[in-house]
């Protein structure tokens, strides 16, 4: 289905993604982990074609996505929804309108200029919102919603695209643990119920372990691990994160139940000082 | 060639709305005579009307002599003088009057040496052009600040000059008067008389320090490019106004006068020369 | 804020409501657009009608006047340096009017702002009074005050300076009090608790917070005031505006002077604009850096 | 950021603090000193001391007094003996022949009662003025011998100004001037006389309740008409003038907004990759902004003549520069995240702008536009004063001709109200159109920054 | 020494402090506890005269403080230092200047305008900062310091006032556990070493128990408990906090070691949603 071959991205001298190769042959939920700057975002952005690759190929159903231009490229983007850490909604527009943006690719420019979306799509948007449990916020402005709700609007926008793949770039990084859980569960449910492939950048191991079928580890632009969640031992994690022996996995945790209290408190103390 | 509207410009010197009101009857007569919509415009200064005539947005106006000269020098083909106001005594001249405060001890131009002198509007004949030529002739020095007078200023207009002198803001200034009647009344007509009537100055507190040669009254001008027939109609209208409607004539002529009589460009050659002289 | 709130309306209801809202928005938007277009068109027609010349007849003549001025100025290009020197003192006067009035207006505006901000005012009951004073100072165009003052004080730079200072005080008073409203009252309360008096609280607790913004606004005002002081010259307040009006009004024969004065004024405005822009940038930028540190 | 030890000892710290404080003191003394020095320089450069001496406070008093009072002139033409009574000495305020207010008794000898014992008599030959506490002043104006005053014995007080041809007496009750041609009495009253109706209107002097009664009986239209066409105060013209002023501001501001918006894209990095075009557009903005609206008025007056259109176009040209600058900055500062979000769905360029950018910049643009609407009302007043027309022209002319200070006061009040109204209106519209502002204060501050 | 008699403060209909009576006859460290809105802050602010009392008296050494006006009132404020939850420093000024603000009452406005603080006061300020362990930050801007450091600057400012009483309004509420400990210890030390009376509003029982000689409990504006820390049983605490049987003391704790992990995490989750 999705095959990434020696995909590389250079920013000047800096190689953000270095000959990444990945093969996804059936719909599954993939978590990409790695520390900051490892190239996770760049990889996803290349798949969505928000960023052009420097070298390599991305094949989707045997078509090279990296070569697409203009209309074809936009059609691919419509097939491959993206969810961002900062939600990237239009805060001043209402929730339904934001969700409807997922259909932009299907409509003529003129109709969209005047915000004229067909009514049945409006209804479908509300259905999707309902599925994500936020239908009652439909007429509100996006900016009036909490972070977790906004992220669900973003997911709704993605679903509105009716995409073949959903890419999620640290979808829960700016959310608190409770909202994070809601959002991750929504993504998982979408994968399970609709059978869509979900690729999510995650910055915590336990989230990856808990929700993903497959985990990919990146370090310095390279894919250094690709396997089942169970294979992700502390040793492997240390390698991915390039940490020394003092590395404690929980330091990255945001799961509600697995917190080690003292550890957490100390961490926070550090953060606020 | 047809015209779709006729626009008359009115010079400053009086309240804008008063000017419009005084000329309202003229507007109505014009509308009747030409059969097109007629509008009055009263820009803030002399230049506003002149620019209108030059740009073709004003068709007719009563200019000062210097103003006409400016129009002519900018574009000889823009307007032609057709009529002039004739005074009750049959002449068509007035004077530039230099004056100062009595308590300043100034009684003549000689006393003004080293003092501050005030002109009015740069485009005024009596408030600038004529005195700026005749006074240097009398004093034998230029009008540059610091040459004969300590400082030479433009106050902006006749009214401002009178106030400036009265306030001691300038020591002496020039404005216009018809030279008829008494000094105490501020003459029969002119800027001083208006100030007296308004209770603004008491002429007992003022002295005259200088008087110019007679200045030709400014012409009523009309745009040259207008259809001949329109020009003829309008000239006739103004010409006959004093007989046709005395009240209206009083308003348009800004006071008692005999009538508007025809005049030609030649009468202003001398002013035009004077103005050329002042353009560096 | 959770979604668990009971009694949520059914999805169908939401759909109906939303469709209704969308329709209403479209109708309002359409009406608004029509009203706006109609207003613009009607306004333009009225203005065109009440103007001496019409837009259609005049637009091709817009370069007549500049051409006249520039061609004469070009002919007498040799006189330019001399003209520039002649009118330089007038430029200094204009700049002085602007600078002095900005300075005085800023001081007065600071006072007005402190007096009309909740939590800072010395007499909280008088806040509305000081607000209205600032509003009125701001609402009167400078030219009105200047003309009245010229009547009393005679022509020259002082009436202009006072007029601009009054307007500046009003304008800055409003802007400053908005800045003040964004300032934290915590330091003020802290100083209050140590027994500091009002002026100490303002000087130490408020001014350091708002200072950079104040300076930035005052600089902006300085730019505006240079123009204002040039304009007031037109009605007899001295400086470059006075010279410019005299030479423009005389017209042909002195257009070279007009051009020289205009050049001085324009260059000054652009230079001050750029300099103050740079300075303001630095101020707000430096401010952010400080906060981050 | 935690407390790691530095190698500075306490004494070194103290020394450092000493230096810090001396530096601060230098600044604390230096800044005010500089300001004071500058103000002192300005004080001398502007000759403020001399000005204070020259200032004419009498004028100030006249102005203030006149702005809330009016004078009635009783004038006798000494050549033909006719007596006329007029308000403010104006033709349109003249009482019809044979009529006069009740303090003037017309007749062979006209008796003018100025109250408090002040009485002026215009006799066939002689003018008499009874001044309580001083005596009676007589003057006989003749063409040949001038004005012959007869004053009570003693020194002539300074409120009497006599010369051969003129006598002027100013008291608290009024003013008398006698010249050879004319004898005239001014009596001052408080109020704006004839504000509602002129003397020739049948409604002059009627009380509000009388007027209400008349209005009820079907004369409302004619009452309104008489008020509207009042020749003294010219309410109709004033209303038009205000309208013209606002019209100039409205057309100028919104026209500039529309032009600037389309041009701003040219000056923006994210929409126009051509550096030269960007540079050029920006310089055009700078130029039209740098040349003040007033200069544009003068320039445009040649092409369009006097009138509100010229004023509106002058504002339009200047503000195109200002808006161009502000708008292009707003466009450059858009949050890329939103655009990216829309882009990731496969939206094309126009759609990205429509949804990613327009919602972001609209509030900024709108609030700028509305803010300028108010400030341009003020500019339009000034521009009108120079050439355009409108209330500014009425005001400057009234000030320059310096007689009707009550009209000046009226216009000033109207201008202030107009500007405040526009301020309120634009604020109201801003709140309505940009509803749901997350942080109104921050936005307002931003707006202000641009002005 | 300090006697508060029937002190009352009404805000409209709302009675924030209701006839509070308190007697402090020897220097001690008093903790005031009570839930949000109980009137703790209002009480302290009335003592410092930041807020005017509606009724009642505050006697300090037999002088009625509530009646003071103008200069006398400011002199009293100088005697009665206040420490705030949010530190209330002047953030853009350097630390020494902030500490010197403690002496403002002694200096004329003009002198302060020109920064004419006597040099020995500057040195004393640095000594005080040294005592609180933050002397090396003296020339930095206050805003550049961490929360705990800023609160210590605030304490230094209070000490600079050489006050008879120190009032502290939730001095550690915006601090993390580590900094909270440092700050409370500093306050305790000041009380012990200088013998000054310290009155501190605290929002956690255990802090009050650990650092105070005497604990006052407020509820709905009334003083409902006044006794030794040991007398503060869970029953009493329940009464003060108006909690039912589900009340768990630890829910309010900020002490590093006593945290119940799950409880805390949930609380935080709630707070952020
Ligand atoms: N637009 C860009 N221009 C230049 N360098 C970039 C750009 N975007 C990313 N990089 C660089 O590429 C590298 C990989 O960045 P990327 O954002 O993909 O990392 P990441 O794994 O998503 O990290 P994070 O967890 O911080 O989001 C980094 O070194 C980053 O500095
Ligand atoms: N300035 C004020 N105006 C009106 N009501 C006020 C004001 N200040 C406090 N209150 C009210 O007085 C009551 C007591 O407030 P106070 O701040 O003293 O409580 P607190 O015990 O300090 O609570 P917290 O722990 O939240 O700080 C509250 O109901 C509060 O709403
Ligand atoms: Mg990333
Ligand atoms: Mg509190
Ligand atoms: O040109 P004037 O009418 O002012 O002499």
From TrEMBL, chains A, E:
Keyword terms of this UniProt record: ATP-binding, Cell inner membrane, Cell membrane, Hydrolase, Membrane, Nucleotide-binding, Phosphonate transport, Translocase, Transport
Entry GO MF terms: ABC-type phosphonate transporter activity; ATP binding; ATP hydrolysis activity
Domain of life: Bacteria
GO terms under cellular component: membrane
InterPro entries noted in UniProt: AAA+_ATPase, ABC_transporter-like_ATP-bd, ABC_transporter-like_CS, ABC_transpr_PhnC, MetN_ABC_transporter-like, P-loop_NTPase
Record domain ABC transporter: where: 2-245
EC number: 3.6.3.27
Record Pfam families: ABC_tran
Broadest EC class assigned to this enzyme: hydrolase
PANTHER family per record: AMINO ACID IMPORT ATP-BINDING PROTEIN, PHOSPHONATES IMPORT ATP-BINDING PROTEIN PHNC
Record's protein name: Phosphate-import ATP-binding protein PhnC
Biological source species: Ruegeria meonggei
Record gene name: phnC
TrEMBL record, chain C:
GO cellular component: plasma membrane
Residue intervals passing through the bilayer: 27-47, 95-115, 258-279
Domain ABC transmembrane type-1: 91-276
Domain of life: Bacteria
Compartment(s): Cell membrane
Membrane topology of the entry: Multi-pass membrane protein
Main location: membrane
Keyword set, alphabetical order: Cell membrane, Membrane, Transmembrane, Transmembrane helix, Transport
GO MF, one example: ABC-type phosphonate transporter activity
InterPro entries cross-referenced by the UniProt entry: MetI-like, MetI-like_sf, PhnE/PtxC
Family of this protein: Belongs to the binding-protein-dependent transport system permease family.
Name of the protein: Phosphate-import permease protein PhnE
Organism: Ruegeria meonggei
Lineage, opening ranks: Bacteria, Pseudomonadati, Pseudomonadota, Alphaproteobacteria, Rhodobacterales
The gene coding this protein: phnE_2
From TrEMBL, chain D:
Entry protein name: Phosphate-import permease protein PhnE
Lineage per the UniProt record: Bacteria, Pseudomonadati, Pseudomonadota, Alphaproteobacteria, Rhodobacterales
Location within or outside the cell: Cell membrane
InterPro entries reported in the protein's UniProt record: MetI-like, MetI-like_sf, PhnE/PtxC
Transmembrane segments: 26-46, 238-266, 380-402, 408-425
Keywords of the record: Membrane, Transmembrane, Transmembrane helix, Transport
Lipid bilayer topology: Multi-pass membrane protein
Domain (ABC transmembrane type-1): residue spans on this chain: 242-426
Family in the record: Belongs to the binding-protein-dependent transport system permease family.
Superkingdom per UniProt: Bacteria
Gene Ontology cellular-component terms listed: plasma membrane
Gene assigned in the entry: phnE_1
Molecular function GO labels: ABC-type phosphonate transporter activity
